[in-house]
Amino acid sequence: YREAWDKDKTQISLPSDTPVMLQSKVNALNISNKHYQKAWDEAKAKSYDLRADAIPIKQAKASRDIASEYKYKETHEKEKGHYIGCPSAKEDPKLAWAARAMALQNDRLYKKAYNDSKTQIHIPVDALSVQAAKECQTLVSDIDYRQYLHQWTCLPDQNDVIHARQAYDLQSDAVYKSDLEWLRGIGWLPNESPEIKRVKNAQELLSDNVYRTPIESVKYTSVVDSPDVVLAKTNAEQIS
Description:
By secondary structure, the protein is mainly α. The protein contains 17 helices and no strands.
């Protein structure tokens, strides 16, 4: 039923010179990117023709010369050493001002007068402070405190040298303790030494045999002039 209608819908023919068709063609050309860049693409396909005296080329060269450090300093390098209006570099106001500024900034030159004045101190010799300082230096001086003896050269066989050696040997701690070092560890004491006698007396005091002596071993002898014997003799004579 719709087959004929569907075929008719797809077969539409409009005249090409109608205002709507013309307007649509113009709009298509306006919005076409290819048509918009057609002239630029044709120009790119051709070779460039730029002259050396062209304005863009001159402008680029001028910009490059301005930005170049060599060109920037070329005038300064040429003018070095050529001073106009001054016979020498010292008389140039700008150089003199720069040297003055550098001298002011220099710490050594700034302190030169002060350092020179530090060494020039004038103090009277008889000032109280100087005298006190000298006395204090004498008191604390190690040279005056220690008076070293002279290094005399003596013969080894002189009496003074022999006597000094004997005195040194007597005072020497090594010689003084040599006998003790030799006897150390031996553990020997002489028989008549105080230590031996003290031990013997203590042994006799603590000995049980001496403390408890038997009465039989003691020899008694009667005393002739005792009171008992004298009384006995007197009684014997009276009774006789």
